Amino acid sequence: MKIIAWMTAAFLFIILISSVYAACPEPDIKVYSACTDKCPDAVTHTFAYADCINKCLALWSKMQDDSAACNKAEREKAEQKRIAEENRLRGIQEEKIITVSTVEGMLWLTNPEGLVKNIVPTDLLDLKPGDILRSDHDSSAVLTLKEGSRLQLGPDSQFEYVDGEIMDVFDVWIVRYDLITGRVRFFPERDKSRFVVKTPHATVTHRETDFIVEVDPETNTTAVYLYEGILDVNTTRGEMFVMNTGEMMTINTKDEAAKSNLSMDDWYGMLNSIETGQNFTPSWKIPAETSTAMPEFLTEMVSGPGKSRTLLYIMMIAAAVGITVGTVIRSRLKKSKGK
Length: 339
Hints:
By secondary structure, the protein is an alpha+beta fold. Helix content is about 40%, strand content about 30%. It has a 15-stranded mixed sheet that branches.
């Protein structure tokens, strides 16, 4: 059985080698045999036979040399291709090396084994799946990928690096993150990397954008602020949305999505909060003030087209009521004095 296995392996190896260098012709013994068959009789034409055999041997040697040269060229070509591919992959792999540009406050890295490391500026991070970055209160950090894409981590924020893969067609590095809590701004380098951000309520995929994703544990909501570009948002309910420049979206605890226009006050307020660690409450979190407006019919009376005439009528009615009430009161006072 072992002999059969070895023979099978050898046969497959020969097939593999043949397929790799199939473009190169192998010396054909039939060509050499056909050449020698044309040579004259060795006894009667000794010298002519010797010359003919020498020519056939030269032909055979040339076929061997040509085949060897072709195989060598193919091997060199394959080696160059392998080296080029390794360099390409190495270059893309280096692009996921993250440089910690700035840190305000404290930034922590926790690996899947639970080991915690304090991150300082100029640190190089080769994130592995399961690594978690966390910022303290009043802390922030800017993380820069080699190819130029950046992540800006706000205060009390935490996200996990899930994985990354290369799109061979475009040589684009796709990076996936889970935003657990807090605020993170993503502004990728165009055509070089793509961020996929998952939250408890939705998955956000960018298309050449500058955007902020926020997960608020107190309200159990996800908010997406899109300053520029296009975003694809898929909620956990299976709903799909496309966001465009100048829009925002909130997904609540029931995974209900609401899209609206992005206020520049909210955008710059969020940016300032991420950069400085200062507290900021976006407008959608501020409850509406209790209404003190007049009833609708009164509003129409005092603000309608004939508001002057309406006010006059109200004043006249009020005066009449006042006179009537005053008359009644005086009449009762006189009766009481007469008694």
